[in-house]
Amino acid sequence: MASTIDTARSERPANPRSRVILASLIGTTIEFYDFYVYATAAVLVFPHLFFPAGDETVALLASFAVFGAAMVARPLGAVFFGHLGDRRGRKATLVGALLTMGIATFLIGCLPTYPSVGWFAPFLLVVLRLAQGFALGGEWSGAALVATENAPKGKRAIYGTFPQLGAPLGFIIANGLFLLIAALLPSDDPSRPSLAFLSWGWRIPFLFSAVMVIVGLWVRLSLVESTAFEKTVKRGHVQKLPLAAAFRDHWRELVLGTFYMLATYVLFYLMTTFSLSYGRAAVTAPLPGLGYDYRSFVLMMIAGVCFFGVFTFLSGPWAERWGRRRTLIVVTLGIIAFGLLWVPMLAGGFVGVMAWLILGFSLMGMTFGPMGALLPELFPSNVRYTGSGIAYNVSSILGAAVAPFIAVALWSHGGGSPFWVGVYLSAMGVLTLVAMLMGSETRDVDIER
Q1: Which of 79-88, 314-323, 367-376 has the lowest mean pLDDT?
Q2: What pTM was computed for the model?
Q3: 13: left (phi over 0), alpha (psi -120 to 50) or beta
Q4: 312, 268 in Cβ contact below 8 A?
Q5: CB-hemisphere CA count at 13 Å for 153?
Q6: Handedness of CA 246, 378, 13, 1 (dihedral sign)
Q7: Which pLDDT belongs to residue 8?
Q8: Mean pLDDT value of segment 41-50
Q9: The domain 17-240+249-438: what is its CATH number?
Q10: Is 425:270 a contact under the CB 8 Å cutoff?
Q11: Which of 169, 211, 266, 413 lies in the 20 to 30 Å Cα band around 30?
Q12: Closest CA to 416 of 290, 267, 298, 266
């Protein structure tokens, strides 16, 4: 009888499914909310407030450079939080990463601007942006592990989509809040935010992140450790130096995982950050674009992001049925083709632009969704937090950190045409495709190994 009870207890999930889903979803929603708040401010506010007046293109590039600085800190955060997560457990590490992220975002909303303190303002912005990136280095992999290590058998890819759904939800909340503030503080010039918005309105979304972080902490503090980590501890397989073990024994998985994410990251930041600049640029501007006003184009983007969310969720069952590798090979081929179709699609007026946004965000969902299961499955449980975090975040340097910056440079080089930006996306897609062809299927690996 005692043996039967012990067996039943061992098969019982460490965390209720609803708690797993909510804990993995809410953390990444806050993560992406914070990032989108910064990305939107990097286009609308920071070029005006944190850099000297003058060339608008230079100010935009400087703002994007600070945006990309966080990506440099992300691998450092992956190493730090990965070490804690693989040695001390997932729960405490996730709480620490979320708290660090929330404090940094809140403090950005309190910063003085360039007219007040000169170059000290962008310096503080860079410091807090680096803190954001450092925290993000430990956030995603921990959330993905909470989802996949607690998933029922045969449903890891489905559960792995829940932390990924934080991206579209965070986008909608962040940009919806910016739209609401802009509507309450209207501007006489639709191409430029109002004086009230530039003075204090832009700070509200950053300060609001504190409320979301408190909710996230409350949910995560109710978690218990996953069975996979507890078994690693009981077997005595906890690594003294997870980073060294990951590079020594799993270097190939680290390289493949980094390139698996490359096209995803480039597409992600082109569709969310670069597109906001390109969509709002007037036809007669130094870098001509589509000429939409801010509210109209963000509403168009939100419509596209709804498809992002839908296809992120659908990608889980597809990756479970057909395998992660086969699903992502097909989607990556679609990303390569999409990059080559930018010019004819964007030349199609409103219908063409909406088709571009919907197709781009749909592909984003289909490539991003399976990554929540694929990257953790590449590594054993004693280096999983470190390995998946490093692959995810090193790819952020190769993809996300430079994507908006390269896109603006190619946009300028092309005389305002997005052709070379699309070619850049396709080229990154080819690199991801090669990595996928070199890799192997992970659907049937033992997550508790």
Answers
A1: 79-88
A2: 0.84
A3: beta
A4: no
A5: 5
A6: negative
A7: 39
A8: 79
A9: 1.20.1250.20
A10: yes
A11: 266
A12: 290
